[in-house]
Amino acid sequence: MGLVLKHVYLTKAGTWHYRRRLPRDVTALVRQNEFKRLLGSTEREALRNCPKVNSEFEGLVMAARRRRDMPADVPHTALDVHRLAERRAAELAATTVHVGDRMLPGSDPEAALLIREAYLSSFPREGGDGLHVEGEPVGVPEIEARALAILTSGGNLSRPAPTIEDARKLYMRERVEGDINEAAKTARLNRVLGYMKDAGVGKDRTMISLTREDARDVRDYLVRDEGMKAATVRRYMNDIRALINLGMTELGLKDAMSNPFLNLSIKGAEASATPAVDERKPIPEAMMRPLRERIVAHAGDDLSRIWRISEWTGCRLGEVTGLLIADVVLDGAVPYLNLVPHAHRRLKTAASIRRVPLIGDALAAAKEAVAAAGSGPALFTRYGRPRGSDAASAALMKHVRAITDDPKIVVHSLRHTVEDRLMLARVDEFDRKLILGHASVGQTGRYGGPDARLKVAERGLKAAMGVAGKRR
After folding, report:
1. Quick one: 211 and 299 in the same domain?
2. Same domain as 302, residue 262
3. CA nearest 398: which of 315, 303, 312, 319?
4. Which pLDDT tens digit goes with each residue over 48-92?
5. Under 8 Å CB-to-CB from 291, ≥6 apart: which residues?
6. Residue after which a domain boundary falls, among 227, 252, 273
7. What's the domain count of the chain?
8. Of 314, 176, 184, 166, which is closest to residue 250 (Cα–Cα)?
9. Which PROSITE patterns does the record cross-reference, listed alphabetically (predicted)?
């Protein structure tokens, strides 16, 4: 046989055929194991048709993988298309094109043109009805078309400018997906983008084209057309600013633009805002004993232990409800809670990752909880799940309201009570932040090993829990 080409065979009948096994991942997608085509009855015909058929094979593989990676019912942006096309172009560039007795890599300009022509030849051509350029193929999938353009340009085709929709998808992946409040955060983000669209700033707008006028238009729309209060407008504008900031950073636009939603004044927002110190009140010391007694008597074992641990540590309710048995360390010189993020419960900030000493009734409650938890892994099985802290808070609030109807006294007020005790015990600010998991200010927050910090926190808590006399 004079002609020797990879995947080309001469049959006993004297005809030339192209036969090639499909990659394993593609086999399941197209439901066939091999790709077969007749090349012709002569060696000359086989030589002429082989590059086209080889490119048809590569096109079949590329199209199958495109359907897998980007389902037809998922909207995608121009940047999404380009990124997928870059991957397809890289796959094509790594293939081998047989031209006569030559074997050229797909990245070779001559081979790239052959791949393009072979692939496009499988689509019908426009007859000149004005919808397309006469003679050009019609219906070529956009990812394949762009992949071929990238290939034939030698990889020099510029990426499309990122849009607000690109920033939204990025924000979803980085800040929303996997969060215990994913559904609520997704709904809020979609609502914010809906308001932006109504204000004339749609998701297809390029990030770099955003102006200060756009930001004012969105702000004015929320105030004028939606009739929102200034404080509500401020929250939505903060959401937009965070979205744009992340997009600028992760999409490489920090040097090309500034965030037009930054430092945008909202008339009346300052006056309408409630100072953080006034949003919640600590639980008065005189109320603590009857409230604890009610919870211990009526709330059930898990809730009473959660309350007792919170009262003696100042931990957030979600930090306690999300504990695993492994997070409770009882065999050290200083027993403690090891607060780290979990899949079912994230922590509010990086400073929230800490060791909190167990003293007094918190230590007793933790020991009881470990003994009752059995094989675990959650310390509180009923509440150690996504949104478990919400369920615990709702249940505890019924007992809080049985003692007081003050709207500023809630379950979270327990944390404010602990902070008051720390201040009254003259525990310094850094130590208070260490115990409560607030962000530390200045260089001091960087120093100190975990054991030293644990001892400092223990000293502060012991001082605080003696302020109002003996507590049970």
Report:
1. no
2. no
3. 303
4. 888 788 778 877 887 776 566 554 445 688 898 888 888 888 888
5. 283, 399, 400, 403
6. 273
7. 3
8. 166
9. TYR_RECOMBINASE
- The answer on 430 and 299 residing in a single domain is yes
Token digits of residue 363 = 């230590």
Residue 235, domain member (yes or no): yes
The phi-psi region of residue 40 (left if phi > 0; otherwise alpha if psi is between -120 and 50; otherwise beta) is left
Helices (H), 153-207: 164-171, 182-198
413-424 vs 429-436: helix axis angle to the nearest 10? 150
The answer to whether residue 470 sits within a structural domain is: no
- DSSP state string for 237-274: HHHHHHHHHHHHHHTT-TTT---TTTT---TTHHHHPP
Give whole-number Cα distances, 420 to 282, 285, 288, 355, 402, in Å.
Answer: 7, 10, 13, 20, 23
Listed residues 253, 273, 293: the one ending a domain: 273
* Residue 214 Cα distances to 77, 195, 237, 373, 438, angstroms: 21, 12, 12, 55, 36
Tell the residue number behind the tokens 């309408």, with chain if given.
272
* Mean pLDDT, residues 136-156: 80
Q: Tokens 């200034």 label which residue?
A: 230
Kindly report whether the global pTM for this prediction surpasses the value 0.90: no
The whole domain housing 173 covers: 164-273
Q: What is the pLDDT of residues 386-402, one digit of tens each?
A: 778 888 999 999 999 99
Residues 365, 334, single domain; the answer is yes
Q: Do 242 and 287 belong together in one domain? A: no
Question: For residue 356, is it left (φ>0), alpha (ψ between -120 and 50) or beta?
Answer: beta
Q: Omega into 377 within 30° of 0, i.e. cis?
A: yes
Give the integer Cα–Cα distance in Å for 66 and 70. 6
The predicted model gives 24-33 an average pLDDT of 80
Length of the chain (residues): 472
Q: How far apart are CA 291 and CA 286, in angstroms?
A: 9
